[in-house]
Specification:
The protein is built from no helices and 12 strands. It has about 140 residues and is mostly beta strands. One of its GO terms (cellular component) is cell surface. Belongs to the myelin P0 protein family.
């Protein structure tokens, strides 16, 4: 009589889940808050970080334009949103939102919010398709 022995090994990996609206319409010339919230089973530590990137409508590549780490915002230097970005989140409240002032038609595209909270890993960043429309 033969019996089979099955060994299973489960590695418990916790993940950060990022939530954003799928699509947003913003009036030309107005300020837009791009909402990004997340869930994480780990305590939010000083190692937590947020990065935002932008893929213009019709472009194949993404532009990283904002990084938040250790309580400080780091907006990119040579970016389409220079001097128009404000940190609007609070990592302790699991909010990684930003605001962009004076939205323009050239700001049409996909905005990607990526949150890291080690040792949690992000499975999938949040993506918001933003459409700037006439007033």
């Amino acid at each position: 009589l033969l019996s089979s022995l099955y060994l299973s090994h489960t590695v418990k990996v916790s993940a950060v889940e990022v939530n954003t609206p799928e699509e947003m319409f913003v009036e030309n010339g107005t300020d837009a808050k791009l909402p990004c919230t997340f869930t994480s089973v780990e305590v939010i530590s000083s190692a937590a970080s947020v990065s935002w990137s932008f893929q213009p409508e019709g472009a194949a590549t993404r532009i990283s334009f904002f990084y938040y780490f250790n309580g400080k915002p780091y907006p990119g230097k040579d970016i389409p949103f220079k001097d128009r970005i404000t940190w609007a989140g609070d990592l302790n409240k699991k909010d990684a939102s930003i605001s962009i002032s004076n939205m323009q038609f050239r700001d049409n595209g996909t905005y990607i919010c990526d949150v890291k909270n080690p040792p949690d890993i992000v499975v999938k960043p949040g993506e918001i398709r933003v459409r700037v429309v006439e007033k």
